[in-house]
Amino acid sequence: MRLLSARLSARRRHPLAGLVVLLLGLGIAGGLYATVAPKPAEANAAQQELVADGRKLFLVGCASCHGKNAEGIMNASGSQQGPPLIGVGAAAVDFQVSTGRMPMAQTGAQAPRKDPLYTDEQTEALAAFVASLGPGPAIPAAEDYDYEDATEEEIVRGGELWRTNCTACHNFNASGGALPDGKYAPSLVGVDAKHMYEAMQIGPQQMPVFSDNVMTPEDKRNVIAYVKHLEQQDQPNPGGFALGSLGPVSEGLFGWIVGIGGLVIVTVWITGHGARVKK
Ligand code: HEC
Ligand code: HEC
After folding, report:
1. Is residue 191 in contact with ligand 1, taking CB distance under 6 Å?
2. What is the pLDDT of residue 231?
3. Low-confidence ranges of the chain (pLDDT < 50)
4. Nearest CA residue ID for atom 33, ligand 1
5. Do 232 and 224 form a contact (C-beta atoms < 8 A)?
6. Is 69 among the domain residues?
């Protein structure tokens, strides 16, 4: 024993001993790290490739209005050729591109929904590129907007939220409505659940943002369940006419003008043609 330690201490004094120990230590630590740590390197490489693909697509299809680095472009007149996209998030790009709103065909009051120009993979790449420029809402996962097995209760809750938050623009039956300056809130009939979720996350154009602390993810899903529920029903119209389903004000107005107006006309006719007049 004593002999061994004497030998070791003799070696320790060797000029290279420190270096050997250091290298050994580093080697062990490195090996341990490699076995324990996740493998971010591959994921990163795939992500970087996606971002690079997205940048290429962006330069060709979007930069003319939004700028090479998505910094936005101002026209000489001071209006925006395209707004900056830094921080709008992947959800905004996915919404705009997969509903065909972007690339905008020509500048106008509002980019209309049309057939998408990009494939799903290209859209994902564009979204990854824009998301790499600044943090913003991510594309929702399928379970976030899965409304299929919503309970009756959840649909009712969704209906309440719908009536307080959405009907002012989208109408009671989700058929949409006009807004000032040639803009409009579109009909939501047939809109993908994913696009509904994204619209609430990002608030396109005049639409307010319903962030998670204003409307929880569960409530967003309930609203979707309610709108889908509306869609599936043929709206019954027990009174006869739907009157454009514009809600109580228009229906009340209709009642006043046509109902009371009609009564007034009948009354006038009766007094004009009644038995007493003939006397
Ligand atoms: C002809 C010009 C034009 C082109 C091309 C264009 N955009 Fe836009 N983009 C606009 C304008 C103008 C707006 C703002 C008006 C609106 O939202 O309808 C906008 C809005 C957006 C928004 C919403 C920003 C926000 O604040 O939520 C996103 C995201 C977007 N564009 C992405 C793209 C992508 C991705 C492309 C390429 C595939 C593209 N755009 C091509 C003009 C353009
Ligand atoms: C202040 C008016 C306003 C309110 C309130 C509003 N929206 Fe919107 N919404 C709009 C406008 C305007 C657009 C179209 C934006 C565009 O085309 O860029 C829109 C677009 C949408 C779309 C996209 C439809 C499509 O064709 O792709 C969905 C989905 C949507 N809204 C759902 C909702 C829901 C759900 C609520 C309530 C939680 C709501 N909106 C509240 C104005 C509104």
Report:
1. no
2. 84
3. none
4. 102
5. no
6. yes
CB distance 161 to 173 below 8 Å:
no
Structural domain boundaries enclosing 123: 43-133
Q: Please say whether the beta carbons of 85 and 202 come within 8 A.
A: no
Q: Which of 51, 57, 95, 104 to mutate to test the pocket of ligand 1 (most atoms within 8 A of CB)?
A: 104
Task: Please give the tally of structural domains in the chain.
Answer: 2
Whichever domain contains 60, its CATH number is: 1.10.760.10
Ligand 1 center to residue 218 CA distance, Å?
29
What is the model's pTM?
0.77
Confidence at residue 28, expressed as pLDDT on a 0 to 100 scale: 75
Which pLDDT belongs to residue 187? Answer: 95
What is the distance in A from the centroid of ligand 1 to the CA of 128?
Answer: 15
Over residues 76-88, the pLDDT tens digits come to 888 888 999 999 9
Atom of ligand 2 nearest to the CA of 215: 38
Among 110, 90, 276, smallest CA distance to 186 is for: 110
pLDDT at 77: 85
CB 51 near ligand 1, within 6 Å: no
Query: What is the DSSP track for 152-179?
Result: HHHHHHHHHHHHHHTHHHH-TTS--EE-
What pLDDT is stored for residue 43 in this prediction? 76
Test site for ligand 2: of 101, 170, 181, most ligand atoms within 8 A of the Cβ: 170
